[in-house]
């Protein structure tokens, strides 16, 4: 204490400072003990009913399940890709125009139907109905959106409408 007296420091300040420091250390220690207790409870709950071997087998089973899910996902992606490829080759753009082929004699029973795939390949079916002579049906092939056979106005219209339709995958 002599040293403190020579320096002009009151000893009560030192005792007060040490007491505050000890109090802070005591509060921090209580907080740490509470957190450690919570962590220990979580650990015990996690390990409850399991020894190291059971826990290891549980983890390995989960990894096997994850690997199986990865395989299944790849298989499904491949299947979806194959289905998509098949659907792109299916007729998916269609249009129909009904008209009176023989000017007031057929009653709008004639029609032209166009079916195209994604590459605009397909056909046009035209059925012209006449009340006296019956019905005439024609099929004209369409390759890449073009017909190499002369088309009527109705067939040109139905082809244009079908080509301008969007497919299901766009």
Tally of DSSP β-strands: 4
Sequence stretches where pLDDT stays below 50 over 5 or more residues: none
Number of helices: 4
The structural class is alpha+beta
Rg for CA atoms: 43 Å
Overview of the molecule:
- By secondary structure, this protein is an alpha+beta fold.
- Helix content is 54%, strand content 19%.
- It has helices at residues 2-7, 11-47, 52-88, 153-164; strands spanning 93-99, 110-116, 122-130, 134-142.
- A four-stranded antiparallel beta sheet has the order 1-2-3-4, with helices on one face.
- It is elongated, with a radius of gyration of 43 Å.
- The mean pLDDT is 84.
Entry summary:
This protein is of the alpha+beta class and 170 residues long. Helices cover 54% and strands 19% of the residues.
Layout: helices, strands, pairs:
Blueprint: H1 2-7, H2 11-47, H3 52-88, E1 93-99, E2 110-116, E3 122-130, E4 134-142, H4 153-164
Antiparallel strand pairs: 1-2, 2-3, 3-4
Task: Provide keyphrases for this structure.
single chain; 170 residues; alpha+beta; four-stranded antiparallel β-sheet; 4 helices; 54% helix; 19% strand
